[in-house]
Write a structure and sequence with these properties.
Radius of gyration: 20 Å
Strand content: 5-15%
Shape: globular
Structural class: alpha/beta
Helix content: 40-55%
Strand order of the largest sheet: 3-2-1-4-5-6-7-8
Distance between the termini: 74 Å
Largest sheet: 8 strands, mixed
Order of helices and strands: HEHEHEHEHEHEHHHEEH
Length: 326
């Protein structure tokens, strides 16, 4: 009898805890409330064909921006473009091919963009890959780190002159809270120290996401007084196919419960949209945001200027980019 009573109490406590956690999660959800229009503004959203990238691109198109969806899959890119045009009535939405796993593709995209566009006001480095295996790209770089960091780093570097000449402009890096669980090692960005047994894809993924934060920090320093800001963000745990790719022990068993605390793609896009349009962040740069709010402290030395500078110089070497004079 006592055991049954204890079990009932335990179930009630769990129910109350889950209810409280769910309520807190919904109450603290960040929503962009700015109604600022973007008529005359030019925007690039990498990975704008699906998930939070798609919702971000659609919102900015709805505000009147000229939106470039940059992704590697032509069919999905064109489909997303057509869907956004239909939903917003904005015909100035376009697809351009970009494969972040190929430095050649990044250079071609940037070269073509600079030849055909004379303005760029918002660059959203949204595309990424979750916890990839220990495989190298055609450039000899770790796939996950190249897609999540080296590719966006090169793209941003090549587009910086146009961003500066179009100021005020904004650079936005979509990071992840996974950065807080990694062991940062600048000598292991390309998995130089790893073998088949030692490779931990979650750790390398976290490192690439910390790189997103540090890149924005370094950019904020280099772009001081230019009218160009750079910030990073964690979109939250979003209901996407990535959830089904998480192989942490027991995670798939509790996935139905986890989904109670996840965001829709629209909700996950809100901080990206906030950083793209809100007047509240006009003068803010080099910060990390969660739920449309800046985080004053960041783990793993995420606000460390010296570490950010070292990462920048190292990244230049990895992508074959000569020292960039801003």
């Amino acid at each position: 009898m006592l055991l049954m009573l204890l079990l009932v109490i335990f179930v009630i406590l769990i129910f109350l805890l889950v209810t409280w956690a769910y309520s807190y999660n919904r109450l603290t959800l960040g929503i962009c409330k700015s109604s600022r229009h973007l008529v005359g503004k030019v925007v690039i959203v990498t990975g704008g064909n699906a998930g939070i990238g798609y919702e971000t691109a659609k919102d900015l198109a709805d505000r009147g921006a000229r939106v470039i969806i940059a992704c590697r899959n032509e069919v999905r890119g064109i489909s997303a473009r057509d869907s956004i045009i239909k939903a917003t009535g904005n015909n100035d939405v376009h697809y351009r091919n970009l494969d972040l796993a190929s430095l050649k593709s990044v250079k071609k995209f940037a070269d073509d963009f600079l030849k055909t566009e004379n303005r760029l006001h918002i660059l959203i480095n949204n595309a990424g890959v979750f916890a990839s295996e220990n495989v190298k790209t055609e450039d000899g770089l770790l796939l996950g780190t190249q897609v999540n960091h080296f590719g966006p780093f090169l793209l941003t570097s090549l587009l910086l002159p146009l961003l500066k000449s179009s100021a005020p402009s904004r650079i936005i890096n979509v990071s992840s809270i996974a950065y807080a669980k990694c062991e940062m090692d600048l000598d292991n960005l390309n998995a130089e120290k790893e073998n088949e047994k030692s490779y931990q894809k979650i750790n390398l993924y976290g490192m690439s996401k910390l790189c997103n934060i540090l890149m924005a920090v370094e950019l904020s320093h280099r772009l001081k007084d230019t009218g160009v800001t750079a910030n990073s963000l964690h979109p939250g745990l979003v209901r996407t196919d990535i959830l089904y790719d998480i192989n942490v022990f027991g995670f798939q068993l509790i996935l139905p419960l986890v989904k109670l605390f996840t965001k829709s793609a629209w909700e996950g896009a809100q901080t990206s949209i906030y950083l793209a349009v809100s007047p509240e962040v006009d003068e803010i740069s080099g910060k990390y945001f969660v739920d449309c709010r800046v985080k004053k402290t960041v783990k793993r030395n995420g606000y460390d200027l010296e570490l950010a500078h070292k990462l920048w110089e190292l990244s230049e070497k990895y992508v074959g980019l000569k020292t960039y004079h801003l």
